[in-house]
Amino acid sequence: MPSSLVAIFPGSFDPPTNGHLDLIVRxxxxxxHLIVAILQNTQKSALLTTGERAEMLKEISAHLPNVEIxxxxxxxxxxxxxxxxxxxxxxxxxxxxxxTELQMALLNRRMRPEIETVFLMASAEYSFLxxxxxxxxxTLGGDAGSFVPEAVMRRLQTKFPAxxxx
Length: 166
Ligand code: ADP
Known about the structure:
single chain, alpha/beta, Rossmann fold, 5-stranded parallel β-sheet, 6 helices, 19% strand, binds adenosine-5'-diphosphate
C-alpha cells in the first residue's frame, strides 16, 4: 500500500451535478490527493466549455483542501502516469453503468496494471441523476435546481437565462 494515495476522478462533468459532488466528497476522504480531471477531447455535444466546468468544479470543491481540478485528453492511463496517480475513481449508479465501467477498467488494467480502478456506489438519492438529464432539462428551459449544487445553478442561469424562470 503506497503511503500517499493519489486518485483521479475523470469525467465530462457537463455540467457537474450533486451526484458528482457526492463522489468527490466521499473520494476525497479515501485518498491523500484527489484530481478531478475533465475530459477535453469529448465527442458529445457540450453544454459548457471545459473552462466553465472547471470553474464550477473549483467552486463546489473549494472546501476540500486535497481536491484539485485539472484537464486531460488522450488516454486516461497515460495521464494517470504523468500525474503519478495510483488509482482511478469512478461511480456506479445502476447495472447499466457496470458493463461499460467493467470494460474500461479491464482495458486500463491491461495497459497499466499498476493503476487500480476503484468504484464507489452512487448514493441512493443521486442514483437516477446524470449530466445528460440535467443538460436536457436546461436546454428545454426547465428547473434543474434540485439536481446541481447552488453554485452550478447560479452559473447555469447566467449562461442560460431561460433556465429555472418558470
Ligand atoms: P463520463 O462522460 O465519463 O460518463 P460523467 O461526467 O458523466 O463522465 O461522470 C463522471 C463520473 O461520475 C463517472 O464515473 C460516473 O459514473 C460518475 N457519476 C455521474 N453521475 C453520478 C451520480 N449521480 N452518482 C454517482 N456517480 C456519478
